[in-house]
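Action item from last meeting closed. Structure (160 res):
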């Protein structure tokens, strides 16, 4: 298969205006013309989608099993209707949450999340403390400004 984003290669943007059915049909025709197996089709399809969708597509059962037909069926169920009303319906959200809850998170994902949480919570705490008790920061800044003014008074640089 040729590299992504070259001429005459299917690409799925993930936008509502880009129908998934058209992309999957074009991809399947192209993959068939390259004599790819079902497993190869399932594994290489992610090369033709945005990076932001790759982990989600890899989490599908059809991808994990290397079964392109099952993957296609799953994706068509997820992206079945591009109208704004159906994409944002409550039932679709409930289905998505249930489907996502079935996914197991590996220990590495949890550790990465925990590290990010620690850094962000420390920053949030620092901002909160400065907002509630800014005196140390203001005193430090005041001393620095006083020192700067003294240096300017002694120097021969004209102050405009």
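Sequence:
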């Amino acid at each position: 298969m040729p590299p992504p984003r070259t001429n005459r290669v299917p690409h799925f943007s993930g936008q509502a205006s880009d129908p998934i059915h058209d992309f999957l049909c074009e991809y399947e025709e192209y993959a068939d013309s390259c004599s790819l197996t079902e497993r190869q089709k399932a594994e290489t399809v992610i090369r033709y989608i945005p990076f932001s969708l790759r982990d989600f597509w890899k989490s599908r059962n059809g991808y994990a099993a290397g079964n392109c037909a099952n993957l296609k069926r799953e994706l068509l169920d997820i992206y079945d209707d591009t109208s704004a009303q159906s994409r944002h319906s409550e039932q679709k959200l409930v289905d998505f949450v249930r489907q996502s809850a079935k996914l197991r998170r590996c220990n590495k994902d949890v550790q990465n999340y925990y590290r990010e949480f620690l850094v962000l919570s420390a920053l949030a705490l620092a901002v909160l403390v400065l907002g509630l008790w800014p005196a140390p920061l203001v005193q430090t800044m005041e001393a620095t400004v006083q020192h700067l003014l003294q240096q300017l008074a002694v120097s021969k640089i004209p102050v405009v």
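Note appended to the action item: The chain has two domains: 20-102, 107-154.
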